[in-house]
Predict the 3D structure of the following.
Amino acid sequence: MSKAPKPRVKSPKTAAKGDVVTIKTTISHQMESGLRKGKDGKLIPRQIINKFEALFNGKQIMSATLYPSISANPYIDFDMKVEEAGEFEFKWFDDNGEVYTKKAKMQLEG
Amino acid sequence: MMMTKTKKPIALAVGMLLGLSVATAQATDDMSLHISPQSQPAPEGLEDYAHGDARSGYIYATEETRTLQDDDFENPAFLWVEKAQEQWSTPEGDANKSCQSCHGDVESMKGVGAVYPKFDPEIGDLLNLEKRINRCRSEGMQATPWKWESDELLGMTSLVKMQSRGMPVNVSIDGPAKEYFEKGMKFYNTRVGQMDLACKHCHIDQNGNYMRAELLSQGQANGFPTYRLKWQKLGSLHRRFRGCNNNIRAEKLANGSPEYMALELYVTWRGNGLPIEAPSVRK
Amino acid sequence: MTQTTEKSQVSRRDILKIAGVGAVTVGAVALTGKAQAKPEDVTAYFKKVGGDAANASKVTVDGPEIAENGNTVPIEITVDSPQTENDYVKTIFVAAEGNPTPEVVTFNLTPNSGVARVKFRMRLAATQKVRAVAMMNDGSTFTGDKEIKVTIGGCGG
C-alpha cells in the first residue's frame, strides 16, 4: 500500500507480573529497496522503514535497525517481561522522515 | 504426489503422461474431468481443504506459508482488511451513505462471498464481488467506483468474502449463468499465446507435478483475494489470470473483461465445496 | 484416468513448453540490479561490528529449508540467554551472504525483553546462508546460521 502506512499491533490486554509476553507488530509499507528498476528503466529510489522502537511506560524494550533486505509490510515479533501495568508505544521511522506510532495499554492480572 | 518434498523432474512426468488423454468435458456430473485425472487423497490434517477431487491451494503451500495464513495477525492481508473495516462505516458519495447505512454490520455479509460470481437479473449480466461492491458505490452511494486492483477494492472484497470463511463455495451455473459458465469452460480449454497452452494443461493435466521449481496447483479460486508473497501485496483473481496469460506469452486481458468474468465463474465453480479462505496467503 | 476426447491430447511438446513457462519472467523480485554480496562481505561486516571472533554456539537461526518465494521468508532467531540485568543479549546482528548488501536487520534487546528471541520476514535474492551474531552485555559474542534454499523460476503472474 503506497498510501499512509498503517501500523498493526497485537499485545496482551492483561498479563501477570513475571510473565514473558509476545508482542507482534507490522506496518503496511512497500520497503522499496532502491535496487529495483521502474518501467522507465531508472532505479526507483530507496524508501524503507529504517528503524523500529518498542517502549513500555517510556522505557525501551527493544529497537531494530532495518535494511532493504527486510520484506515489504515489515513484521517483527519479540517479547517482554511483565513488571507493571502501563502503556506500550511503538514507533516506525520512514526514510522520508515520517514517524508512525501506535499505543496499546496493558493491565496487571489479579 | 502433491505433497512430496522431492522435486520430480519434468522428464518423469513426460513418461507418465504420454498418451494419456483428458476430456474436455461437456458434462458437469463427473468433476474429475474439470479438476484432475490424478487427484490424490488429501494429506492428513488437511482434509478440510479438499472436497471431492478439488484441492485448495492451501494444500500445495508449504507449512511456512500456511502458518502465515492461519493467524489473522500474521497474515499480511489483514493490513488491507483492517482499513476496509474502517471504510465499511465511512459515508461517501453524493448519497452520503456508507456500506453500513444499507447493510448494517459487516457480519450481515455472511454467505454472500460464497455465491459470487452470480448472474444479476437487474443489470442482466454476471457480477463478481468486486463488481457488486462497485455497483453499490456507483448506485447506492453515488460515489466513484474503485479501481480494480486498488487497495480499497481488494480490502473491501476480502472483508466481505471473509465473512463466509469456512463456508463451502457454492456458485450457481444454472439458468442465465449457464452461458457464462460454458464460455468460461471454453476459455479454460482453449490453447492461446505463443506457447499455445490452455489453462487445463497446467492446472488439470499437470496439477501436482513440478514445472521447474513450481508445484502446479489446481488453480482454485476459494482463497482470492490473496496475499501473494511474490507480489508482496494483496491481489485479485483477475491479476492472477493476467499473470498466467503473460507466462504462456498470451495476451493479457483487462481486469473485469467479459472473458475473465466468465473464466472466474468456471474456475470458482470447479472449487464448489471447498471452504472460502479469503484472504489467503500463497507463494 | 482414461477419458477420451478428440481434443487436447497432452503431447510431449506441451510438457516441454510447460517446463519453459515463466522462463522469461524475472524482474519481479524486490532485490535485483546489483552484484550479490559474498560470504566474505558478511565476515567483514561482522568484523566491523565486533563479532568476528564469535563462538559458534547459543544462537539458533530458524527458517524454512526451502523458501516458497524469496520475497517473504520468515526467520526466527533465538539466543540462549537468561536475559537478566547481569547477563543479557544486547544486540543481534543479522546478515545474508547472497543479497546485494550483507546487512539485514539489527536488534537491540534489553533485560526487559525477558528472553532473547525475535521473529521477522526477510528477502532472499538466492539460495544462501543467513547468519546472526549475538553480542552479550559483557561484550562476548556468539554466532549461528542457516542455509535457506530459494527456488527461482516458477510461474509468476
